[in-house]
Amino acid sequence: MTTASFPAIRMRRGRSSPWMRAMLAEHRLHPSDLIWPLFICEGKDREEPIASLPGVSRWSVDLLAGKAREVAALGIPCIALFPNTPNELRTDDASEALNPDNLICRAIRTIKDAVAEIGVLTDVALDPYTSHGHDGIVDGRGTVLNDETVKILVDQALVQAEAGADIVAPSDMMDGRIGAIRQALEREGHIDIAIMAYAAKYASAFYGPFREAVGSLGRLKGDKRGYQMDSANSDEALREVALDLAEGADFVMVKPGLPYLDVIRRVRDRFEVPTFAYQVSGEYAMIEHAAAAGAGDRDSLILETLLAFKRAGASGVLTYHAPDAARLIAG
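Request: output the structure for the sequence above.
Response:
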């Protein structure tokens, strides 16, 4: 009997052909892993390209039916909606957030009328509606007031639920808002509306293009570090997630995505609940600019980064690349 000479184990055998690599792949992307964030503007038959997000536009409500049919045909299960509220409707108290005929509510109804089976996720936060760009009510010293803000967020979530939202997603990072929203939804009979909590949302430099997209760029006085998380912390993220789940969140989110893959992994391992990542605007823009500069193949960059989220434990990803990624996955 002879002993095999070194190396007896050759890992590259499993990489030797396309069928072998496919058979042994540990993680796979599917269009059902994707949620498409969509920006909305006033007007009719209107598309507004966003300069800092190449290939991304704001769309008027009347064009959303076509967008919903497009992504449904690609197998993408859900659209996330974000409004660019007109300047004249932005106020210190964010009253437009509670208007049952605001941009978000009209968009929900339009999408549901066109494609009833597609999911609609709505952002629960006040920054698209405030004149100062913060996610909540601000006092005379510029401090965001937690409890006063939560009361408005509850009413905002109810307005969106009445319009037909399937998932409300509080992104504001106020303490106690998940429990207050859950109680209100139950009380008003919206027992099947899911809550996706932005549980670990960091005060990040990667949000710049998004703020242009929703029209809050340049409005913000100060920053959001008083209520969004410090990028130095990951143990704190686990505390945030635990609190939101205890208060009634169905799913949780980590935002941004790629700089926080370690947090996604820790959340999924600790809680074993559906955990989503938001590949935010700055991440998207980096891929687009890198590809345009010839620093990498765009299609490969898109798929590799999305697969990284799945490998880290994400159940799904909010990404502006969703339609392109779905087409690439389909081949």
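Residues 203 and 266 are 19 Å apart (CA to CA).
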